[in-house]
Specification:
The protein is an alpha+beta fold. The chain is built from 20 helices and 12 strands. Among the domains are: 191 residues, no CATH class; 196 residues, no CATH class. Keywords: Cell membrane, Membrane, Transmembrane, Transmembrane helix, Transport.
Length: 668
């Protein structure tokens, strides 16, 4: 067979199978377009020069999107291959050799991927311009314009390499599908049903154990760092449990329904349950895949939106005023007690020197703090013992060590602009982890204090478990610097060192004030923090996270639509003959439609319900992970989660409506 004849076969095949091939081309092109956009941002000069922290996120996004796009396209090809088995068998019966069939497949794929490549590159570039402007808007940078997003040859090359890898992978899979298989076997594959599957009790038990352990980890893990370490472990167990239970437990449920004579022997239930049992094994894998994808969309978008919406509050929490300067030489009170006051005077002098003309300093504060590592034995705070789950000499369990911000009440009031007074036997206490605030009395240093709990105000850039301990007097604070020691790498102990900070706002600020202040502090051993600069940084990071979350969410959603579409179309062709038989034996069209409707509802609603349960169970561990981004209120995350879920349900129902209509048309 020459190339011309093979090409004619390939073109006719594409036209005959357009119901399957066109969605494959469009969905693959969309996912690869998103990947092209990520590749193009990697080498975009505007991004590299203006947002230096963003390329790290984009690199991560390229890897994640590449993996999922590859999986979804290979998975979609599975439906195409199964549909084409009869066609390949007919070629064999007509006398074509397998090498001829391989040539036809190769040409078909070349044409398909030629379309995919063209749409991906052109669509990726055009959509990329809009996404580029959207990205910069998320990062609060309005200086970008369309000219800052030129065509990227680098992205073109990487995208074509990725497309080539998929092309080769699919070709190998398709060739292996027909290799060493006779035409009769290929036809049998086309018409092969799944049969009534057996109840797989062992698989059900394994699924329940995997899902239960994943849920257990998600619900019981406490602490940001532990959540970070075990989140992917919990996710893996939940995914495995989901697949196992859809494959096995769904069969058990259907067989229980079948054994319920009163329920099963009703016309609608009889046909629906029997039909679902007949090919549930094939449905189960698709349903589990849709469930996992739905859960991924909900969690990804909920988390990234929560991160983005907390930017302003996090910035104000980390840097309470527009400007702050911090002494880089921490003061050792024990060896140099007079140096604290000298540093305070120096910092205030720098701030006073920075203003000129009508500029005035507003709402200044002077703070002195210790940031140190502590251990907690029951209600006693001790200096680090680095022990977890052990028993101390007092017989009390040593809690997980954590960090503590210690400061006197006058420093706390100065920063927070409050006027709180506490008694000598009281201590103000707060933490970014509520479970740490269970004590009404604590032993701090060598004395017991009553606890007055205040609202969490731990800086949002501290992601680990941390206390804020506010002492009633400065003397208690200074004594604490000697009691709560620090260790160097050799194990030598030193008093905790005090950090001195001065912060302020500016009234009637001149246009060159920031540059002037930076020049004053650049030659001194002083750290300058500007709230607007910090805001810009976290807008870059968090805006980048949101952008990445949206792109990954779009890939997941496209995968969901693709799998749902192919499931409905393939099941429609499989069911058409059965429903024609039902009509021939006298079953009314109304009953046939009800039967098909109940099966479609079962297959669509079940993944959504399970995805909702998964996302609600995961909300605790995801919320704890968001502590890394300064998100402390569970209600904020849940509100965003509910909002995303509501929008997703609407989109999911639209997918259901479109794909179910296609199914009904095929069945009729």
């Amino acid at each position: 067979m020459n190339i011309r004849i093979a090409s004619n076969f390939a073109v006719k095949n594409i036209r005959a199978n357009k119901l399957f091939i066109i969605p494959f081309i469009l969905s693959s092109s969309l996912m690869i377009s998103l990947l092209y956009i990520m590749f193009s941002l990697l080498q975009n000069e505007f991004v590299k020069t203006r947002h230096t922290s963003l390329p790290m996120l984009i690199n991560f996004g390229c890897i994640i999107i590449s993996i999922f796009t590859y999986i979804f396209i290979i998975y979609a090809n599975r439906f195409l291959v199964k549909r084409r088995n009869r066609e390949f068998a007919l070629y064999g019966i007509l006398g074509l050799e397998k090498k001829h069939i391989k040539r036809i497949i190769s040409i078909e794929q070349f044409i398909n991927f030629l379309f995919i490549s063209t749409i991906s590159i052109l669509g990726g570039h055009l959509i990329g311009k809009l996404m580029f402007m959207f990205l910069n808007k998320l990062m609060a940078d309005m200086s970008a314009n369309l000219m800052d997003y030129p065509f990227s040859g680098f992205a073109l090359v990487l995208t074509m390499i990725f497309i080539f890898v998929i092309y080769v992978s699919i070709y190998i899979i398709n060739v292996l599908n027909i290799k060493n298989v006779s035409p009769i076997e290929l036809i049998a594959k086309q018409h092969k049903g799944e049969g009534e599957p057996k109840s797989k009790l062992i698989l059900t038990i394994l699924g329940l154990l995997a899902l239960g352990y994943g849920y257990y980890l998600a619900l019981t893990i406490e602490g940001t760092l532990k959540s970070l370490g075990l989140f992917f472990v919990a996710s893996l167990f939940v995914i495995v449990g989901t697949y196992f239970l859809f494959i096995s437990f769904s069969i058990i449920v259907l067989k229980i329904m079948k054994n319920n004579k009163k329920y099963f022997y009703k016309d609608k239930n009889f046909l629906s349950v029997s039909g679902m049992l007949y090919r549930m094994k094939a449905n189960a894998v698709g349903l589990a895949s849709i469930t996992v994808l739905c859960t991924g969309v909900i969690i990804t978008l909920s988390a990234t939106i929560s991160i983005y919406r907390s930017i302003d509050k996090a910035a104000n929490n980390v840097i309470p005023r527009e400007y702050s300067i911090i002494s880089n030489e921490y003061v050792d009170y024990k060896t140099n007690p007079q140096k604290i006051e000298l540093y305070k005077k120096e910092l205030k002098k720098i701030a006073d020197t920075s203003i000129s003309g009508s500029e005035k300093i507003k709402n200044p504060y002077m703070s002195e703090q210790v940031f140190t590592y502590v251990s907690k034995e029951g209600n006693r705070f001790t200096y680090p013992k680095m022990a977890t789950g052990k028993i101390s000499d007092t017989g009390k369990a040593i809690d997980i060590g954590c960090y503590a911000i210690i400061e006197p009440i006058d420093s706390y009031n100065s920063v927070s602009r409050k006027n709180i007074s506490i008694k000598e036997n009281e201590i103000l206490l707060t933490s970014n982890v509520k479970r740490l605030l269970k004590d009404d009395k604590i032993i701090f240093g060598d004395k017991e204090y009553r606890v007055r709990k205040v609202e969490d105000d731990i800086p949002g850039n501290i992601g680990v478990e941390t206390f804020r301990i506010v002492t009633p007097t400065r003397k208690v604070f200074l004594d604490a610097t000697n009691y709560y020691k620090t260790r160097d790498r050799k194990g030598n102990e030193y008093p905790s060192k005090i950090s001195i900070e001065y912060g302020w706002n500016i009234k009637n600020k001149g246009s060159n004030y920031d540059a002037k202040l930076k020049k004053i502090t650049e030659d001194k051993n002083i750290a300058l923090e500007v709230r607007n600069d910090y805001k810009k940084f976290i807008y870059e990071m968090n805006g980048g996270f949101l952008f990445l979350g949206i792109v990954i969410g779009m890939v997941f959603l496209t995968g969901t639509i693709l799998i749902s579409y192919y499931k409905q179309v393939s099941e429609g062709f499989e069911d058409r003959k059965q429903f024609q038989i039902m009509r021939k034996v006298g079953l009314p069209d109304k009953l046939v439609r009800k039967t098909s409707s109940s099966q479609i509802v079962w297959m669509f609603i079940t993944p959504l319900i399970v995805a909702f349960i998964h996302s609600m169970v995961a909300s605790k561990i995801v919320y704890q992970l968001l502590g890394l981004f300064g998100i402390r209120k569970y209600s904020v995350f849940i509100a965003n989660n509910v909002m995303v879920l509501a929008v997703f349900i609407i989109v999911y129902l639209i997918i259901y409506k479109i794909t179910s209509n296609i199914y009904y048309k095929i069945v009729r």
